Amino acid sequence: MNPDVNGLSRLEKNLGVSFRHLSYLITALTHKSHTNENPGLHPEDNERQEFLGDSVLGLIISNHLYRTYPDLDEGALSKARANLVNETTLAVVARKIGIGDFLFLGKGEEQTGGREKDSLLSDALEAVIAGIYLDQGFRVTHDVVLKHFEALIPKVVEQKHPFDYKTTFQELCQERFGVLPEYTLCKACGPDHDRVFIMDLSVKGEVLGRGRGKSKKEAQQQAARQALERLKDPNENGACASFWKKKHRPLSR
User: Fold this and answer.
1) 232: which DSSP letter?
2) What is the pLDDT, as a whole number, of residue 132?
3) Which residues, other chains included, contact 126 with Cβ-Cβ below 8 Å and sequence gap of 6+?
């Protein structure tokens, strides 16, 4: 069930901003599936604002890293920015703000768990950032972004980024199985400007996770995340749990 437009004040409170023109926020929360099903209700989806928000967010994070960490070289700055503005991290921030509760979705997306999809959450967050910029200007947007990212930035700069599932799973495989996981591209779909990649993660020929993302790297991160979550539960039914029970043993030293 889609949220009531009149109830968006709670999201504004979570964000820490009060919109002068609420239409920017409504557009930011409107997925194209909802627009397709309700063209007269919300005629514009969030894709254009997402495009702008991506650039605004990148500038704010880049500027902050540049000014706060003068000892970081270009490579380190680029790596830190990439870890802060990728789909996985944006989805984490979006969940903390509660954006998923306020998305306007079509019936299909609603039924398939669209409110929890990293891709939809990260896109919506970028669109919300653009909405704040269009409504309030750069200075307010800058302060709002840093408010919600400030706890993550030092962890990323110190290379303690908590959302690098791919590296975590790779280390687990090397320690436990003596091999590296393999990633296979299953499918690529969508137009060139909005491609979606689906990747499988396998270990010793057994598929343990599947992920999707706007890039192959993002899809690999999601596949590793799924595999890690499933391997944490030794009681889970299925091939993943069976693999874990049989082979989750330290290698002889």
Assistant:
1) T
2) 98
3) 49, 50, 53, 54, 57, 90
Exposed / middle / buried, residue 70 (Cβ in 10 Å: 0-12, 13-18, 19+): exposed
Type and span of the H or E element at 244: helix 239-247
Q: How far apart are CA 208 and CA 224, in angstroms?
A: 8
Write down the pLDDT at residue 6.
67
Contact 162, 155 (CB under 8 A): yes
Integer-rounded Cα Rg, in Å, for the chain is 20
Dihedral pair phi/psi, residue 184, rounded to 5° = -125, 130
Question: Which active-site residues does the annotation give?
Answer: 54, 126
Q: Which two tokens stand for residue 182?
A: 């393999």
Within 10 angstroms of residue 169's Cβ, the number of other Cβ atoms is 25
Report the candidate in 22, 40, 44 with the shortest Cα–Cα distance to residue 31: 44
Residue type, 95: R
Token pair 């609603």 is found at: 110
Say whether pTM exceeds 0.90.
no
Structure tokens at 151: 């706890």
* 53 close to 127: Cβ distance less than 8 angstroms: yes
Model confidence over 40-65: pLDDT tens digits? 776 789 999 999 999 999 999 999 99
CA torsion 113→23→134→136, rounded to 10°? -110
d(CA 149, CA 142): 11
DSSP state of 3: P
Spans of the chain below 50 pLDDT: 161, 234, 236-241, 247-253
